[in-house]
Amino acid sequence: MTTLTEIKARARADAFAARAAAHARGQGQAAEILADYLAPHRDRPLSGYMAMRTEIDPLGAMTAHQGPVGVPVILGKGQPLRFREWAPGCALVEGAFKALIPAEGAWIEPEILIVPLVAFDARGYRLGYGGGFYDRTLEGLRARRPTLAIGFAFAAQELPEVPIEPTDQRLDAIVTEEGVREFA
């Protein structure tokens, strides 16, 4: 019998290959589409991320945001993320998993998160890297107030169905180079 861990590992391998091929083709106007989607949320604290390897890059949308922007910081295994304020040109250092994070700055609590992912499906579920950081973080933020989670990915990263667990947090929308999809 195949375990959920094995199913997720196989789905990640397929999605990483699709993402790498899409990355090689370029992300088109994806960051501009994301910036347009975020425009009505100006002044609200936003979390983006510093793209790694073949992740789609939200930097253009982060730079265009008219409000505070943070970048996720991993504090430790099993903990939710914290978000350090980021601005274009700020000094960056290598954090956990070699992700770049601001060298210094205030901590912010985002109301809107641009969420990186390995794969997504038409139900609004995402497959992450397996650490559960965004699921824990979204659960905590959503317990305190409405929090918008926007997946950002290449259209090629869509799977027919992402394997999920009870702790998986659903996205509110997905933005790709092909446009925006919102989930009810």
TrEMBL record:
Superkingdom, taxonomy of origin: Bacteria
UniProtKB keywords: ATP-binding, Ligase, Magnesium, Metal-binding, Nucleotide-binding
GO molecular function list: 5-formyltetrahydrofolate cyclo-ligase activity; ATP binding; metal ion binding
EC number, UniProt record: 6.3.3.2
Catalytic activity entry: (6S)-5-formyl-5,6,7,8-tetrahydrofolate + ATP = (6R)-5,10-methenyltetrahydrofolate + ADP + phosphate
GO biological process: folic acid-containing compound biosynthetic process; tetrahydrofolate interconversion
Class in the EC hierarchy, top level: ligase
Residues binding substrate: 50, 55
Cofactor: Mg(2+)
Protein's UniProt keywords contain Cell cycle: no
Similarity annotation: Belongs to the 5-formyltetrahydrofolate cyclo-ligase family.
Protein name (Swiss-Prot/TrEMBL): 5-formyltetrahydrofolate cyclo-ligase
Species per Swiss-Prot/TrEMBL record: Fuscovulum blasticum DSM 2131
Top-level taxonomy: Bacteria, Pseudomonadati, Pseudomonadota, Alphaproteobacteria, Rhodobacterales
